[in-house]
Write a structure and sequence with these properties.
Elements lengths: L27 H4 L7 H14 L7 E5 L12 E5 L2 E4 L16 H10 L2 H14 L9 H33 L2 E6 L2 E6 L8 E5 L7 E7 L5 E5 L1 H4 L4 E5 L2 H6 L3 H5 L4 E5 L9 E6 L2 E6 L3 E2 L4 E3 L3 E8 L5 H4 L10 H36 L13 H15 L7 H19 L13 E2 L13 E4 L6 E12 L2 E3 L34 H8 L3 H12 L4 E5 L2 E5 L3 H12 L2 E6 L3 E6 L2 E11 L7 E7 L5 E7 L1 H4 L10 H13 L3 E10 L1 H15 L5 H12 L4 E12 L3 H10 L3 E5 L4 H10 L8 E4 H17 L5 H7 L9 E6 H7 L20 H30 L3 E5 L3 H15 L3 E5 L5 H6 L2 E5 L6 H4 L3 E3 L4 H39 L12 H11 L1 H10 L5 H6 L5 H4 L6 H27 L12 H23 L5 H21 L2 H6 L9 H5 L3 H27 L4 H7 L1 H6 L29 H6 L16 E2 L3
Parallel strand pairs: 17-29, 17-33, 24-36, 29-32, 30-31, 31-32, 33-34, 34-35
Antiparallel strand pairs: 1-10, 2-3, 4-5, 4-6, 6-15, 7-13, 7-15, 8-9, 8-14, 10-11, 11-12, 16-35, 18-19, 18-28, 20-21, 22-23, 23-24, 24-25, 25-26, 26-27, 27-28
Helix pairs in contact: 3-5, 4-5, 5-12, 5-30, 10-11, 12-29, 12-31, 14-15, 18-19, 20-29, 22-24, 22-25, 25-26, 29-31, 29-34, 29-35, 30-36, 31-36, 34-35, 34-39, 35-36, 35-39
């Protein structure tokens, strides 16, 4: 079997939980595999290749230093458009904008006319220009269409200008580029592949660059990768020895002419392979030599580097994923409803056209007084009438609907931006709605996918508690160890090295240290000050630690505050200050951390010649290596359980003294292992195991991985709203699991299922499905739950297991070589196709089963996953559950996930802006997500649904009056209203009240929305806007149109006015129906309004007043004189509305129309109230009560499960870096306060 084939987890050990799986672009070298032996085929291939000459190796990226013209060579050109070619090497400018000044108007119009409604109204406008067809003036369609296109274009322009500004801000950053023999300031956008750049401390890295030399020893460079992965701890990079020695001056860098051959641009953040060819020699390159765009240089004064990948080719940009056009479910549903309306419109127009054909034959052609002099036959007249009715009834598809929706969304976005309760004062960061098209989707979220580092956590570690020799410290106590109710931080002012932000509340431990009587406590902090790989530098007289992980930094900082201060280190010594006495220890060996060992050790020689080993590590591995007679094991274990249940990260400390003979024997084995050619790491681990035995326990530390404020409460409240939260992180399994407990996704009652368990369950389910295939048991088997015990379950799965479970194999990039296919029969080809289809079905079935299982769990944590796997998990849930998803993250490794989800949220702050730039919404703290969804999302959804239901209703009520009128007008496509009323109905007379409802309405206030998360559920189920609601609005509109037409029609049949004249003319009838309709639709929105303000009341009564005011103006004689052909209802309104009989008719029409609606509202709110109705009914009672206090989580001191997560983000290799002396700079003699020096 192929070595890269999927391995069965049952028949093997399965994937390694610590490995980050390959998941995306892979280099040809990785994918080259031995081909199946086929002698004859190989011979044919070889002969073909020999005839064609040597085959050029494809897929190799070549860069020549200090040579910009090299990238323009013909061999590096690629076709861009038609016959035009351009270099395959990208420039360094990035572009996220969509338009430029030239393309804005045409492209924006093209985009807008892709909307079916806009294209439909453009076609209507063209029809209205044709005199034979037009039944309405052209301006009745042109005015609303221009309004819609203009407002949407302005919104798109504002959004694109913001993107232009952000792009310009990045592209116009400056850096030093070597040109003409000296460094000159260039903008980022002008940097090219092959350029030599100079970076200074705290500079952003402009491209993916090869580190050549730095001002540090051995060209060491520290970088912060927060924008890539959200982690703020420093990573180190190294230049090659040859470039460090040869490339320090401008002249040397100018003469540098190396050729770099490396992998093609890809999105693998954790891998790079390449070769540098210089001066007839080759040097291998890997990720440790590469600085990636998006990182920041720290603690390194000067760095020189060469640009390898620029702009769109950089790994951070490759990780961005494809930008997807996101639309809400309501948008899709609204489009389908518009298509439904359009279909009904065609049916109605066709029916009325047929009616007109028959009417013309039987009545129209025989009535001399209806003769219009035209010679067309009835069929042609019917055809013309069909188009006429399409124009008359076009308001069934309301063009103003779209512009109103855009206005409402824009307003909702501003409300999010203006919300002070989502403003983070510490960093002056407000919430930002970066899109205006997805607000109502926030009220329908079913699944949240969250990153961990920087999203749920602050990535800040704090030393909280410890247990030393069986005694626990850390709870608030006075100097005598008596517990205190009040919290009073310890005063560390006695220690000149103390760090001001360090907080500790147990006053007995500092007193114990100052007395120096407890040798175990002294040894405890001595171990913390000595056993680590932290590096130190002095800055303005202050010690600055550079830690490989936040854990190590927190432990060394704790030792520093308690008087054991790490001062400096060399290749074979380490110097600390112990309560003011400076001591230097000889370092014999550092036994480095790795993910399998989960511990690190250091072997020191003391002043008296004693050789001592200090070790710290995860409790699960330390307890296995303790001496049988080591003291306080049970007591410490009990305290570890308590720490773990408080979601603190535990770490055990121990030591042993080593005899000279034992050490000599071990040192020889250690030397052999270090120079082993094969399996060096395994050999070293074996040697480390031999010395790390019979250890004596000193105690344990408890570190808090600080969650962001309010994370547990936010997750708890979102869970009550039936929102499922999945954590997708690149961190280790233990770390991710520990955070799961900290944020209450996991509890001690939760039964956790790991990758191997899931694999077995899914395999069993799939096997059962195959066994029952073809029977009726298949469906029932698929719906059968995976967990039948009724308990709380959770999945914790690593990226390797995820690939294993989902049958995800690596992509294969085949080289472009001529390979003649082996001839196959049709039977073999059919068999192969069937086999592929079977594999695809099995894969889809497996993925569906996995999602079903995961959805049965209360929590899902995927750890050690790649950016692509994060996006894959989101896509799976969207595909299998048809659910609305939200992704939230803070780093570049979250961008793909953010773009894949229906809603993407970026956490803004110190972690960088890459995630924010790709997000739909951004804010500074995870806790604001609760308010974004349960308040703004829910309100937006309710408002939009209420707006759409009412909008469809009022347009049906308005348009169908023409339908009823056609039965009494010979189906002649004549309108029941005046032309100007038709033009202004949706623009002025009925738009403002419904707009304000869409902007301001709320059934309950924000506090009650947060207090009762169940109010969110109707949005997830789509209860407030669906086809049922649509047809209710349709039938309601039909009913209103019937009342509006037939009651005035009946009243006008045999009527006599006060002046003895009959007011039953067409114009008086049009005024009466229009007046009745305006009053009805404006009072109807009043019945639907839950939250009344002055603006709402003013809009309702103001709209009615505006209608009457404008109507009297356009019916006046003065305007008729000026525009006689456009204003033909001269005196109609004054003449009709002076008749009391018509006012009685209007009042009767309004009453009969609204009374059934009032009755239905009453029945629903009293007999079938919704959850929202119940809360609204008791709103004043709830508002008077204080919100219920949250119960503190119970601390189960009897629990036996320890959760250790040593080395939060620790990297292997720091010990080798220290031992090699590459990281050591000369120790400054000035700047640090003088201390008494004593060499032990």
């Amino acid at each position: 079997m192929d070595q890269r084939s999927r391995v069965s987890s049952v028949d093997s050990l399965g994937p390694n939980d610590e490995d980050m799986p390959y998941s995306d672009d892979e280099t040809d070298d990785e994918l080259d595999e031995p081909q199946p032996k086929n002698t004859e085929q190989n011979r044919i291939n070889q002969e073909t290749e020999d005839k064609q000459g040597p085959v050029k190796k494809e897929g190799t990226w070549k860069v020549k230093a200090n040579d910009r013209r090299f990238c323009e060579l013909p061999e590096f050109q690629k076709k861009s458009f038609l016959w035009f070619k351009k270099s395959k090497y990208s420039g360094n400018s990035i572009r996220t904008y969509k338009y430029n000044p030239i393309t804005f108007l045409p492209l924006n119009l093209i985009d807008q006319f892709k909307r079916a409604a806009n294209a439909y109204f453009l076609a209507l406008l063209i029809l209205q220009v044709i005199p034979q067809i037009s039944t309405l003036p052209w301006y009745t369609t042109l005015v609303p269409l221009i309004l819609v296109l203009g407002i949407t274009a302005i919104k798109d322009l504002v959004d694109d200008i913001a993107r232009h500004r952000m792009d310009n801000e990045i592209n116009n950053r400056s850096c030093d580029v070597l040109q003409d023999g000296r460094f000159q300031s260039y903008k980022w956008k002008d940097v090219q592949v092959g350029d030599i750049v100079r970076l200074k401390k705290n500079d952003f890295i402009p491209a993916d660059i090869l580190l050549l030399s730095t001002s540090e020893p051995n060209s060491l460079c520290y970088v912060e990768t927060a924008e890539l992965d959200g982690e703020t701890n420093l990573k180190f990079k190294l230049g090659l020895k040859v470039t460090h020695e040869e490339l320090q001056t401008e002249q040397q860098l100018s003469d540098y002419d190396a050729m770099i051959e490396c992998e093609e641009p890809n999105n693998r953040l954790d891998k790079f392979t390449g070769t540098m060819m210089w001066r007839n020699d080759s040097y291998s390159l890997d990720l440790s030599n590469i600085l990636l765009r998006g990182c920041t240089v720290r603690n390194t004064d000067i760095s020189h580097a060469m640009v390898i990948f620029a702009g769109a080719d950089t790994k951070i940009m490759k990780n961005g994923g494809k930008t997807r056009f996101k639309r809400t479910n309501i948008d899709r549903l609204m489009n389908y409803m518009v298509y439904t309306i359009f279909f009904l419109l065609i049916l109605i127009a066709a029916g009325l056209a047929i009616g007109h054909t028959f009417w013309q034959e039987q009545i129209g052609s025989k009535a001399w007084y209806l003769n219009d002099g035209s010679s067309e036959n009835s069929t042609y007249r019917g055809f013309i009438t069909f188009w006429g009715y399409l124009i008359v009834l076009n308001t069934m598809v309301p063009i103003s609907l779209y512009v109103s929706v855009e206005v409402i969304r824009l307003g909702q976005s501003h409300f999010i931006n203006w919300d002070l309760q989502m403003y983070y004062e510490d960093k002056d960061t407000p919430a930002k709605a970066r899109t205006t098209t997805l607000n109502e989707q926030l009220g329908q979220i079913e699944y949240i996918f969250s990153d961990k580092t920087g999203t749920l956590t602050q990535n800040i570690m704090a030393f909280k508690k410890c247990t030393i020799n069986g005694k626990t410290y850390g709870n608030p106590c006075n100097a005598d160890g008596v517990s205190l109710d009040s919290i009073n931080p310890v005063d560390f002012s006695w220690n000149k090295y103390a760090e001001g932000k360090f907080q500790f509340y147990d006053h007995s431990l500092p007193l114990c240290i100052k007395k120096g009587e407890d040798l175990h406590a002294m040894e405890f902090f001595r171990l913390l000050a000595l056993c680590h790989t932290v590096m130190v530098e002095e800055n303005s007289g202050q010690l600055v630690y550079q830690a490989a992980s936040p854990d190590e930094g927190a432990l060394v900082m704790a030792a520093r505050n308690f008087g054991f201060v790490f001062l400096s280190r060399s290749q074979n010594t380490i110097t600390i200050s112990e309560m003011g006495l400076e001591k230097t220890y000889e370092v014999i060996a550092i036994l480095d951390f790795n993910s399998d060992r989960k511990r690190m050790s250091i072997i020191l020689k003391l002043a008296d010649g004693t050789i001592r080993l200090y070790c710290k590590g995860a409790d699960t591995v330390i307890y296995e290596r303790l001496h049988p007679e080591s003291e306080n094991k049970e007591t410490t274990q009990t305290e570890l359980d308590i720490f773990a249940n408080e979601t603190l990260r535990t770490l055990c400390l121990c030591y042993k003294d080593i005899s000279d003979e034992e050490f000599s024997t071990w040192a020889a084995k250690h030397k052999d292992a270090r120079i082993a050619v094969t399996d060096r790491e395994a050999a070293l681990d074996k040697v480390y195991e031999e010395i790390e035995t019979n250890l004596l326990l000193i105690g344990a530390t408890a570190i808090e991985d600080k969650l962001q404020d309010g994370v547990p409460e936010t997750i708890s409240n979102l869970a009550k709203a039936d929102i499922k939260i999945w954590v997708l992180t690149g961190d280790k399994k233990e770390t991710a699991e520990n955070i799961g407990y900290a944020c209450q996704l996991l509890t001690d009652e939760t039964q956790i299922h790991y990758g191997e368990d899931v694999n077995v369950l899914l395999r069993t389910r799939q096997q059962n499905s195959r066994n029952t295939e073809g029977t009726q048991l298949v469906k029932s088997n698929a719906k059968e739950p995976y967990f039948t015990d009724g308990g709380i379950h959770a999945l914790v799965i690593t990226g390797s297991w995820l690939n294993e479970i989902l049958y995800e194999k690596k992509k294969r990039k085949r080289k472009l070589k001529l390979r003649l296919p082996t001839p196959k029969t049709k039977e073999e080809q059919t068999q192969q196709q069937q086999s592929k289809l079977k594999e695809e079905r099995a894969k889809e079935e497996r993925q569906s089963h996995f999602v079903d299982m995961a959805c049965e769990c209360s929590a899902v944590i995927c750890c050690r996953v790649t950016p692509k796997q994060k996006a894959m998990v989101v896509s799976l849930v969207k595909k299998c559950k048809k659910a609305i998803t939200l992704s939230i993250g803070d780093g570049a490794n979250d961008v793909n996930m953010i773009k894949t989800a229906d809603i993407g949220v970026g956490i803004s702050g110190q972690e960088g802006m890459q995630a924010v730039m790709s997000s739909d919404y951004a804010f500074a703290q995870f806790r604001y997500l609760e308010r974004l969804l349960l308040v703004h999302g829910r309100w937006s959804y309710i408002r939009m649904c209420k707006f759409l239901r009412y909008f469809f209703y009022k347009n049906f009520a308005f348009t169908l009056v023409h339908f009823w009128y056609s039965f009494f007008s010979g189906y002649s496509a004549r309108t029941a209203y005046e032309d100007w009323f038709i033009t202004l109905y949706n623009v002025l007379y009925s738009s403002l009240p419904v707009l304000l409802v869409g902007l301001l309405d709320q059934d309950v206030n924000d506090k009650l929305s947060l207090r009762f998360p169940k109010l969110y559920v109707p949005g997830q189920e789509g209860q407030l806007f669906n086809y049922k609601n649509f047809f209710i609005s349709l039938f309601h509109g039909v009913y209103t149109s019937l009342i509006v037409f037939f009651i005035p029609y009946g009243a006008f049949l045999q009527t006599m006015g006060q002046d003895g004249e009959a007011p039953s003319d067409y114009q008086s009838f049009a005024v009466t129906t229009a007046s009745s309709l305006i009053i009805i639709v404006n009072l109807q929105i009043s019945l639907n309004t839950s939250y009344w303000t002055f603006l709402n009341a003013f809009s309702v009564f103001g709209s009615i007043a505006i209608y009457f005011g404008i109507m009297f103006d356009i019916h006046s004689a003065g305007i008729h004189v000026i525009f006689p052909s456009y204003f033909t209802f001269t005196g109609a309104a004054p003449n009709a509305l002076r008749q009391p009989y018509l006012w009685l008719t209007i009042i009767l029409t309004v009453g009969i129309s609204l009374m059934p609606v009032i009755a239905v509202h009453f029945l629903y709110k009293t007999i079938w109230p919704s959850e929202g109705d119940k809360v609204q009914r008791n709103r004043k009672t709830y508002e008077a009560d204080e919100a219920p206090k949250k119960k503190p989580s119970a601390l189960r001191r009897g629990a036996t499960s320890r959760r250790s997560a040593y080395a939060f983000s620790h990297q292997q290799g720091y010990a080798d870096l220290i031992a090699s002396g590459q990281s050591i700079r000369k120790r400054p003699s000035a700047g640090r306060p003088s201390v008494l020096r004593e060499t032990e």
